[in-house]
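Sanity check. The docking grid for F0G depends on where the pocket ends up, so I'm generating a full predicted complex first rather than guessing from homology. Inputs follow.
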Amino acid sequence: MSEVKFFYGDAVPLEMHKVRIVQKLNLLPIEQRQEAMEKAGYNTFLLQNPDVFMDMLTDSGVNAMSDKQQAAMMQADDSYAGSETFTRLDEKVREIFDTEYFLPLHQGRACENLLSKLFVKPDTIVPMNYHFTTSKAHIVINGGKVEEIFIDEALKINSEHPFKGNMDIDKLKALIAINGAEKISYVRMEAGTNLIGGQPFSLENLQEVRQVCDDHGLMIVLDASLLADNLYFIKEREEQCKEMTIKEITRAISNLCDITYFSARKLGNGRGGGICTNNKEAYMKIRELIPLYEGFLTYGGMSVREMEAITVGLEETMDENMINQAPQFIAYMTNELQKRGVPVITPPGGLGCHLDASAFLDHLPQTKYPAGALAAALYIASGIRGMERGTLSEQRDEDGIEELAHMELVRLAMPRRVFTLSQIKYAIDRITWLYENRRLIGGLKFVEEPNVLRFFFGTLTTDSNWPDALVDKYRQDLGKVCNLFC
Ligand code: F0G
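Predicted complex below; grid placement will be based on this.
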């Protein structure tokens, strides 16, 4: 895909697949979208799918499957124990990650649950390049503390740094020197760092982290959920990897880590998860907990059909022409928005296009949840469902004080091979309109606020009747009824 040159200039990302099964979409009139948003408590997680035009909430469990994945699902061997399906998945995971042991679990956070239960002790620290919501919640619930040691560039909205997901090696050394290695449970590296805009780490950086961990006898735990994007960026951007295949890069990464876990809702384009390792002791400890929390060792809470799909999906992930689709669409969308002056995270990462809500709505303080407000406004203006990734996605500290997020982002995820370029152009159009009318957008406040992972189920309301003003302006600018009745 990246190789294709266009004769008349104006290169666009070219899909290396064709669409053979489709799902009908609805585009409701804006008045109905406003109603749906209000009913959902201004929380895009609580919208109903028939009300959503483009679902850019996440890439989790919603990537398009290939014909080969679907075919494999038909030959799944359904049995509680000893299923052939598991043998195929087990062999594929161990081949790709070059590990001796594999354990199946029902999704990524299930891996985090067991790893935290086993390795996080009260008052220990887990240094990481950046946290993810569920990984942090599991560490905290087990009495541990997360220390983020990202490079300074990580939080710069606009940067040229090719690897904003790198860990700061000097800060890691300093953290170990101050606290002592015995206070550290393990070092967590997250591929395709989710919450800072799907930004990758480099192989070189991981090699340096390994060196420090070797010096202090520490384990590295890799969260490989977003590895596909990270692999693509390493191949594209890192000199030492230019001649390596995607599989060789995958193995090089895995060989630097003690334990690798992944959400197969992302990696492998199925629905499941797993942990792999060469460390027999760790394997034996985790294995004990699988039947207790997940299911028997040959399915770990996954359906056999999904396991077959993951086996094929993992092999397909080793194809650069497959894993480049999402990053190239994201780069297209990000660059087009930037040309129109819309504040976005650069360089474009994996996972999705990220709007910088702090700059977009610079008239709103973080306590009014600008990223949440922008996600709600975008749904009203377009039928596009994005995800708040800012202060709403944090939780209050023990004293009930709001923890302000480092960044206020609206993530527009790019599920792999799902959207066409014209749909992306529609998204760019509506986001640009919204940006020109940004002063109409007001803040949000909680109606019901759960204590843990509040962004999933919390309900909010607006601090004024700004949605009415937005709808009025939309009607003025875009007419009463367009061809799509929107
Ligand atoms: N780690 C990372 C980096 C993730 O992005 C996710 C999920 C998980 C772990 C947890 O995996 O959902 O299978 O339990 N991210 C989803 C998202 C929820 O929308 O970004 P899971």
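Relevant for the grid: The chain has a mean pLDDT of 96.
Also worth noting: The longest strand covers residues 101-105.
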